[in-house]
Design a protein that fits this description.
The protein has 124 residues and is of the alpha+beta class. Helices cover 37% and strands 13% of the residues. The protein is built from 4 helices and 2 strands; from the N terminus they run ααααββ.
Length: 124
């Protein structure tokens, strides 16, 4: 059973579960063929040397806490940093890491706090 507020398993609520509601999370989609060349190049250019601060946070969070959904990832980063984070920014950085092969779909789906199914992401 998952908490509909924070997405955590029952009994494992995050410290700010009752006080913080993230912005809506949109399902990850890969770049379309019609997307500009720069979008595809940006994902391909992600290397250890060019990781942004948020990309590094995403990788560290997955390494420390294990696979999770975008929603859980955003909440965990916010909890670890003790400040709200840009949900859109975290999702975009995780998407770039997935396109670069650093983060993968684990094949598992879990409900978000709104009850919709979400991909569980893990390290490659």
């Amino acid at each position: 059973m998952y908490c509909l507020q924070c997405g955590a398993e029952a009994g494992q609520h995050l410290s700010w579960c009752d006080d913080y509601t993230p912005a809506p999370i949109y399902r990850h989609t890969k770049a379309r063929n019609s997307d500009p060349e720069t979008s595809h190049a940006a994902a391909a250019s992600v290397t250890q040397e060019t990781l942004t601060q948020t990309q590094t946070l995403v990788l560290q969070t997955l390494q420390t806490h294990g696979p999770m959904t975008d929603e859980q990832l955003c909440m965990r980063i916010a909890d670890d940093q003790q400040q709200p984070v840009s949900v859109s920014g975290v999702r975009t950085r995780r998407s770039e890491l997935a396109a670069a092969g650093r983060v993968v779909d684990t094949g598992t789906r879990v409900p978000t706090r709104t009850g919709r199914q979400a991909i569980v992401w893990g390290l490659a």
